[in-house]
Amino acid sequence: MRHGKNRFLVGALAAPLLLYGVFVVSPYAQAFYLAFTDWNGLSGQAEAVGLANFTALWSDRLFLAALRNNGLMLLAVPLLTIVLALFFAALLTMGRSDRHGGIGGIQGSGAYRIVYFFPQLLSVAILAVLFQFIYTPKNGLLNGLLEAIGLGSLGRAWLAEPAWALPAVMAVMIWAAVGFYVVLFAAAMESIPRDVLEAARLDGAGRLTTFRRITLPFVWDTVQVAYVYLGILALDGFALVQIMTVGPGGPDNSTEVIGLTLYRSAFTYGKFGYASAMGVTLFFLTLSLTMLALRATRRERVEVA
Amino acid sequence: MTPRPSHARINPTRRTLLGGATAAGAAGLLSGCVTAGGSDESDEATGAVTEANPLGVPEGTDLEVVMFNGGYGEAYTQHAAEVYEGLHPEATVDHQGIQRVGETLQPRFVAGEPPDVVDNTGAGRLDIAQLAASDQLHDLTELLDAPSLDDPAVPVRDTLLPGVVEDGTLDGAVRFLNYSSVVWGIWYSTSLFDANGWTYPDTWDDMLALCEEIKQSGIAPWTWQGKYPEYMVDPLQAMAAKSGGIDLVKAVDNLEPDAWRQDAVLAAAEAVHRLVTDGHIMEGSEALSHTEAQNSWNNGEAAFIPCGSWLEGEQQEVSPEGFDMVMAPVPDLTASDAMPFGALQGTSSESFLVPSQAANTRGGLDYLRCLFSTEVARGFAETAKALPVVLGATEGVEMTSGLASVADAVGSAGEHIFGYKYRLWYAPLAKAVDDATGELLTGRLDPEEWGDRIQAAADEVADDDSVTKYQR
Predict the structure, then answer these.
(1) Are residues B245 and B265 in the same domain?
(2) Closest-CA residue in chain A for B108?
(3) Does residue A217 fall inside a structural domain?
(4) Which residues from B are below 8 Å from A243, CB to CB?
(5) One domain for residues A22 and A160
(6) Whether A6 and A140 share a structural domain
(7) In chain A, whose CA is at the least distance from the CA of B105?
(8) Residue B134: domain span
(9) CA A67, A70, A75: angle at the middle one, nearest 5?
(10) Same domain, B151 and B286
(11) Which of A267, A274, A282 to probe the B interface (max B CBs under 10 A)?
């Protein structure tokens, strides 16, 4: 009996494991190996160069600029996205309370939920092109809007000014991500027992207090997961930057991200070994971020008996 | 100078990038490891050398051609395939027009199974210097010495525009041949200029004076493709070269100390910077893509735009009737420029090569012989609206205003066609030049700072032992 079970397990798992090994594990392993060579991507030869690729990273202006920009994105994007998403989700699920102390979403919350999710359905490439038109200086939507409300003097070439280009890119990331996390948080909030919320209200807790003392602790696990995902998103940004920005990566490297530096090193400069070293560094950055995020945000779970 | 005739930027997503990387990795794994492809020249399949088959193509062997299908289309390479099949009736040509040539073919080069002919062009092409350094390119010298298709008494070499063979030479061997002749200049609409009584200026001082006049009429004198600053690098470095002569160009390409701080280079930067300080550039140009800027120019919002000779073909769908665009050489920087007014920055593009590990290298060479024939080249001028590098190919072809102005400019430039090599040799330096020029054109850098910054980048490349150095 046991014997047959094992055979079944092996039989069922062999094919997927093989595929996984060939298409996922082996490229990773290769990248780690290549990071220690000077492979140019075309030649049959690759000389081992030890840690040279990794030491060169720290004097590479582009890579350092990319590290700085991804760092800024890491600070701003997850935080703003989560704050906005929590706010909207709270409105959708408990924005309205009736005379009898019952709690529900604001009017039309079902429709809002669908609308919020729309950006999630667009591919990043389309988003980037759309926002390029929104930001474009001559007849862009953003400058037009500012003009219409009498703030025309604030209009500018958003993607061409070093101080504004990165915030402009981050705004797109946040805009695109918020909807998904609204839906995620709203689902988590709906699973909070109504009687707990209503009891709090009856005890005289205001909305803010209810949110802080009851809602947030209940959805904390979900927020934690969201933070990790958004952190990984913030360490990427490649597609948006590549399509939207001046250069790309400009003006003057103000929107350079690690993914773009890596791509350029490999496919424009033919330095695949060096690019692999960047990839390996990014891998460890992401891994450390995930671990740190999960550690730092650990809290006691709320148990409802 | 890397020409950008077909800005068909297919923007890669992270997924395609990772997909490419995975494919590269998997190809390596399947053959043992990444470097297992080996770079030995495979034994060449050859056939009998006859008068009709001077390159000894093995009959009955098929041919695979992979070309970049960009702004010039693929009609001309298909035409050449038909001619080839006419010469070798037993062979079939597998012709594929693709984009992002590099990412598609890189795994095949590594695995030692490249196609027989590659047109390595467009965004995402392979780094040709790296290909050559990795022994992946067949020497094309024997093709150049072979009799041309049009006249067996004339070798292929003598049917090409001057400079084409030199453009394709790396480390003493001819590694690729470019098909399209590209020159750079400043474009304007003759109908707009006639209506306003403006004439194209001969010197930069006249240019600035004309700009004042144009501004009075309510049109912005200049716009440019700010999202890709390299478009403005071209007129800047062309003026520097005309003023300082070919020695200036060589000093820049050879990474000589202070090459970017030479007087003529800084004077050219100063000249371009004047457009900014005098307010001659259309507002917001620095954030426009090439399409947006060129369309604004086509709509009459700006008088001048810098671009290479492909502009007319690129804009043919949107250019209004009677716009009659023409290209002119950049104005003289000083009264005593080293080169005459008509001198042009030019190069050739659409790089055709035969991989050394191809299955049918002889066929690859013979395909190029067909491609560089007058018949195919004339078809190229007609369909692609660009100048082929084959001598006399445009004779009798009816030309539009832009193409005619380009042909005229090339004719009057004569021997004074120059080109920089540093963009081809040192891609990181090209990026530094583009970045700094973008900043110069927004006024965030002045010409001094611009020169210092680029010089620092050039010195960095010069001091980097891991970069293969070239001399001219």
Answers:
(1) yes
(2) A42
(3) yes
(4) 11
(5) no
(6) no
(7) A42
(8) 38-174+354-371
(9) 125
(10) no
(11) A267
CB pair distance less than 8 Å for B134 and A44: yes
Q: Does some domain include residue B319? A: yes
Cα of B419 vs its chain's centroid, Å: 10
The answer to whether B286 contacts A45, with C-beta atoms less than 8 Å apart, is: no
**Same-domain status, A136 and A158:** yes
pLDDT in tens, chain B (472 residues): 444 444 333 333 333 333 344 444 433 333 334 544 444 444 677 888 888 889 999 988 999 999 999 878 899 999 999 999 999 999 999 999 998 898 899 889 988 899 999 999 887 788 888 888 888 999 999 999 999 999 999 999 999 987 889 889 888 899 999 999 899 999 999 999 999 999 999 999 999 999 999 999 999 999 999 999 999 999 999 999 999 999 999 999 999 999 999 999 999 999 999 999 999 999 999 999 999 999 999 999 999 999 999 898 888 889 999 999 999 999 999 888 999 999 999 988 899 999 999 999 999 999 999 999 999 999 998 888 888 999 888 888 888 899 899 988 988 888 898 999 999 889 899 999 999 999 999 999 999 999 999 999 999 999 988 888 888 8
Domain that holds residue A172: 35-296
Q: Rounded CA gap, B280 and B292, in Å?
A: 18
Q: Do B14 and A31 touch (CB under 8 A)?
A: no
Q: How far apart are CA A146 and CA A140, in angstroms?
A: 10
Question: Does B217 share its domain with B100?
Answer: no
Residue A257, classed as helix, strand or coil, is: coil
Kindly state whether residue B403 falls inside one of the protein's structural domains.
Answer: no
**Chain A residues near residue B300 by CB distance under 8 angstroms:** none
- Verify whether the Cβ–Cβ distance A246 to B283 is below 8 Å: no
Residue B13 domain-assigned (yes or no):
no
For residue B446, give the CATH number of its domain.
3.40.190.10
Contact B35 A38 (CB under 8 A): no
Q: Is the backbone peptide bond immediately before A248 cis, with ω within 30 degrees of 0?
A: yes
